[in-house]
């Protein structure tokens, strides 16, 4: 049985990549190769790489994305009437909640993708 291939993650959003790729100047010997889930992420990733010598600085992007997600979390907490306990919390506490949700979501997606691949391998009619 083949070892299940590791899922490739989108270089922008972290979802499972789906056949969209980018390499600066089409030179994989000089620049990293990135995979993306969609044309939207490919366009965003290519624009970032073009501005940064072929590299996508994911750490900066993730930090900004978590900061941006504070607003939607606050809106949802307000809609549910749950904002009061969070109102005086530090930004780092709010970011921990957001990161915990993202980590749980990603871990589940990776587990499900690996299980699906293992299932496909077992059902593969060609035994090698
Ligand atoms: Zn993506």
Question: Would you mind describing this structure in some detail?
Answer:
With 128 residues, the chain is mainly alpha-helical. It has two domains: 7-57, no CATH class; 60-121. It has three helices and two strands, in the order E-E-H-H-H. The chain has helices spanning 39-51, 58-79, 91-122; strands spanning 20-23, 33-36. It has a two-stranded antiparallel ribbon with strand order 1-2. It starts with 19 loop residues before the first strand and ends in a 6-residue tail after the last helix. The model has no long low-confidence stretch (mean pLDDT 87). Residues 10, 12-13, 15, 36-38, 41 line the site of zinc ion. The site of zinc ion has 8 residues, from loops.
Could you write a compact summary of the structure shown?
With 128 residues, the chain is mainly α. It is built from three helices and two strands; from the N terminus they run ββααα.
SSE order and pairing:
Elements: E1 20-23, E2 33-36, H1 39-51, H2 58-79, H3 91-122
Antiparallel strand pairs: 1-2
Bound molecules: zinc ion.
- Major beta sheet, specifics? 2 strands, antiparallel
What gyration radius follows from the Cα positions, in whole Å? Answer: 19 Å
Overall SS class? mainly alpha
Summed up, the helix count is 3
**Oligomerization:** single chain
What are the segments in which pLDDT stays under 50 over at least 5 consecutive residues?
none
Terminal CA distance: 7 Å
Output mean pLDDT: 87
Beta content: 5-15%
Helical proportion, percent range: 40-55%
Element string (H = helix, E = strand): EEHHH
Counted beta strands: 2
Ligand set? zinc ion
Domains, number: 2
The coarse silhouette is flat
Q: Order of strands across the widest beta sheet? A: 1-2
């Amino acid at each position: 049985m083949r070892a299940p291939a590791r899922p490739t993650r989108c270089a922008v959003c972290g979802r499972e990549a789906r056949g969209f790729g980018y390499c600066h100047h089409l030179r994989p010997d000089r620049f990293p190769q990135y995979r993306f889930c969609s044309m939207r992420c490919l366009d965003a990733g290519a624009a970032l790489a073009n501005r940064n010598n072929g590299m996508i600085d994911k750490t900066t992007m993730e930090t900004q994305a978590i900061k941006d997600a504070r607003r939607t979390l606050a809106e949802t907490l307000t809609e549910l009437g749950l904002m009061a306990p969070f109102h005086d919390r530090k930004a780092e506490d709010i970011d921990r909640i957001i990161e915990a949700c993202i980590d749980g979501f990603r871990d589940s997606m990776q587990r499900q993708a690996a299980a699906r691949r293992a299932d496909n391998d077992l059902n593969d009619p060609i035994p090698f």
